[in-house]
Amino acid sequence: MKAVIFIQLTKRQEAISQIVQENQPITGEKIAELLHVTRATLRSDLVVLTMIGLLDAKPKVGYFYVGIKDEKKEYTYFKDLKVSDIMGVPLIVHQTESVYDVIVKIFMEDAGCAFIQDKKDSFCGVVSRKDLLKASIGGGDLSKIPIGMIMTRVPNVTTVLEEESIFDAIETLVNRQVDSLPVVRLSEDGKTQIVGKLSKTIITKLFLEIKD
């Protein structure tokens, strides 16, 4: 049996909803202007309101109010989700592996990035396709350059916890403006274990499922 979750909109999300109802179609820039905030400040709110079906967005046109058939300011969804419920399988490599080998793995797995472990199997960094492209252009023997030399290192990598609310994780994903985030588990011995990945593609599939 599917669980039900009730989501309470924030005051700003309620204000955005009201503005769209009264001025639709309206651009994100205009909404930000009316609320006296930056467009970046509203980004996560607009994503949430669109994904839950309260608003609809059309490129080069703006936002429309769709509404949910509930007079209360609580909206019903059919899954009470945590990150662990929807996370994908990560591509994990060790920091001693060569840049060349990681390039091969990324394209064989059709992955957007690879998460890196150290010799203790603890999460220590991430490398993207862009990072690999830069390394390739830079020259050198890629089979002799360890991936640890070019990765973005912890603590400069944003992560989400497996038990975290999916809505909190979505906000983190949007605010960081990245395509995916590593999902981690913190162990008692101080290790940070990679257990999954949360990506924009996974989130999109989730909300398509909710819509259906």
Automatic annotation (TrEMBL):
Keywords: CBS domain. PROSITE patterns: CBS (PS51371). This is Transcriptional repressor CcpN. InterPro entries: CBS_dom, CBS_dom_sf, Diverse_CBS-Domain, HTH_11, UCP026546_HTH-CBS, WH-like_DNA-bd_sf, WH_DNA-bd_sf. Coiled coil: none annotated. The gene is ccpN. Residues 151-212 form the CBS domain. PANTHER family: CBS DOMAIN-CONTAINING PROTEIN, CBS DOMAIN-CONTAINING PROTEIN CBSX3, MITOCHONDRIAL. The keyword Hydrolase does not apply. The keyword NAD does not apply. CDD domains: CBS_pair_CcpN.
